[in-house]
Amino acid sequence: MVLVNGIAYPGELLAIMGSSGAGKTTLLNTLMFKSSPSLIVSGYTALNGFPVSSGTLSSLSAYVQQDDLFIGTLTVKEHLVFQALVRMDRHIPYRKRMQRVEQVIAELALSSCQNTTIGIPGRIKGLSGGEMKRLSFASEVLTDPPLMFCDEPTSGLDSFMAQNVVSVMKAMANKGKTVVSTIHQPSSEVFSLFDKVLLMAEGHVAFLGSTDEACTFFKQ
């Protein structure tokens, strides 16, 4: 990547797009201080205009990975209770943690499947792909971070499920969070849910602006 820069504001859903090998995941990993040790990086990541360290960013952000990692024999609620016990601040009382679990289940539309076993593909029947991805988001928002990074959250989902997942991301942005996500070949309906797009091409930023501006720009 060369001379890559950009900005995302609270309340915005930003898509990082580009063809395979354009640098989307490399950029996302660099922003989160997760790039390969062999990669030489210059520059900085800033929050509210101030450069931040890996530790500071980690305490203020959440990361929804492309691959969902769960203990398949747990139910949705059991998983979230476990996450609340190990990830939320140790000074938060148990009752408050359980209230937060119930709140997140409602916010992520997981009420109907909260007692469903997560499942193991090919072995234990469980959640659908869309439900699995919503559970990934639920796990990360338990601590109510102001900043979220998502790596290809619609990968492997059909168009309906993909739109459902990005709608969840949009709802989070509407609550004041800054949501930054890589995404590959979104449908027009999914694309319209994003506020801004950063288009990568051969390691460079080809475009950064609103989705409306992007449509106008590429019509020229």
Automatic annotation (TrEMBL):
Alphabetized InterPro entries for the sequence: AAA+_ATPase (IPR003593), ABC_transporter-like_ATP-bd (IPR003439), ABC_transporter-like_CS (IPR017871), ABCG_transporters (IPR050352), P-loop_NTPase (IPR027417)
Membrane topology: Multi-pass membrane protein
S-adenosyl-L-methionine as UniProt keyword: no
Pfam families named in the record: ABC_tran (PF00005)
Entries under Gene3D superfamilies matching the protein: P-loop containing nucleotide triphosphate hydrolases
SUPFAM superfamilies linked to this entry: P-loop containing nucleoside triphosphate hydrolases (SSF52540)
Keywords for the protein's UniProt record, in alphabetical order: ATP-binding, Membrane, Nucleotide-binding, Pigment, Transmembrane, Transmembrane helix, Transport
An example Gene Ontology CC term for this record: plasma membrane
GO molecular function terms listed in the Swiss-Prot or TrEMBL record: ATP binding; ATP hydrolysis activity; ATPase-coupled transmembrane transporter activity; pigment binding
ABC transporter domain boundaries: 2-218
Cell compartment(s), UniProt: Membrane
Family: Belongs to the ABC transporter superfamily. ABCG family. Eye pigment precursor importer (TC 3.A.1.204) subfamily.
Name recorded for this polypeptide: Protein white
